[in-house]
Amino acid sequence: MIDLYTAGTGNGRRPALMLEECGLAYTPHKLDLTKGESHTPAYHKINPVGAIPAIVDHDGPGGQVVSLAQSGAILMYLADKTGRFLPTDPVARAGHLQWTMFALTDIAPTSGAIFYASSKLEDKAAAHLFEERLLGFLGHADRRLGEVEYLAGDYGLADMALYPVYDGRRALVDAKGGLSNLKRWADTVGARPAIQRGMAVA
Ligand SMILES: N[C@@H](CCC(=O)N[C@@H](CS)C(=O)NCC(=O)O)C(=O)O
Asked: What are the helix (H) ranges across 23-169?
């Protein structure tokens, strides 16, 4: 059994998508970030930096209990645990990791920056700057998805890494217009039953 600590954010939703895709048994625990529920002494034992998502796998390798934070690390751990959604062939794996990192280290933090800039600053210039930067990254994803069905070619971690961020920024994408390959991809990914179940968790 796996305990999942999460909330309804792009980063928070990612592990539930993979848990559902892999058919793993898990118990979701929804934290209210506005009430500081990720900053209690008990939760800091699970994730010392006090952020969601995190998992506790009570049946880790060799029967160990594994506590893990960082949505990308959780996706990779679950891929290794199940042998699914991340190839073992070194070249194919490197390609999947490249697109996973694009979602996790370029796209997701830029979306986070929009949230912080728009909620903390009176002046909206910074938020607009990050919106333009995010649309630039999504434009790269759109061109890629004009050549292949899924980000890394085959469906995998990269798609689960990107989808919840895309879902949270649909209004921006719609206002921009175009990006038809990205929208086709989002429709396909979003129609997967496991993705629908995972997105509904928090
Ligand atoms: N890089 C981390 C980001 C985690 C993160 O920023 N979580 C936010 C919600 S999206 C959070 O828990 N914020 C609460 C806080 O830091 O107080 C990941 O992908 O897991």
From this structure: 41-46, 71-82, 90-101, 108-120, 125-145, 157-168
